[in-house]
Write a structure and sequence with these properties.
Blueprint lengths: L7 H4 L5 E3 L2 H9 L4 E3 L17 E6 L18 E5 L6 H10 L2 E4 L4 H10 E6 L6 H9 L5 E2 L4 H13 L4 H8 L2 H13 L1
Parallel strand pairs: 1-2, 3-4, 3-6, 4-5, 6-7
Length: 192
Amino acid sequence: LTTEPHNIENLKKLDVVYCESTPIYEAVKAQGLHAIKAFGTDVDFYNPSNSIKDIKYLCIGTFSPWKRQRSIAHLSRDLYCVGTIQPDGQEDYQAVVNAGAIIQVGYFPPQHIRELYRRAQNVVIPAIHGSERTCLEAMAMNILPTVNPENKRTISYVEEYIKSGYFTPRDFVIANYSHRTYADALLRGVNE
């Protein structure tokens, strides 16, 4: 489950509800449902390298009102945006175009996205919701992203890391949100 649990009667029909983030997990648990936090990213694939860090600010995500690229358009030529354009996302797209940001529109292979992370000095997530996967991918690349504090689900990963005592974001993701821990959590739900 990626969003707030609104249809509790539907969720009660499930043996287990897999939740992507702590806020959703806690909301489901508060309803008395069997919940398991299960989410992650492939830390073997998303790994840092010694690439030249020539992208000051990287923003990955579809151009849309909830992703809020317009709020970071002021970064202008230092901003590199990648994503598709939603029908209602023209304003966000145009804001970064007008500001002079570097933009790639479309769907790209994961290898291309990984290389952009490797080149990034900073990853920015201005979205009011969503972008949880982007956050974990950046952290797996050893980049602590700057996340909109209104985005409770996504910022929960950053807050967890800060409180965790792990030395790097990558160490934290390997221990808590790797593809292996994700698979283990899914299996735990099946076997309980």
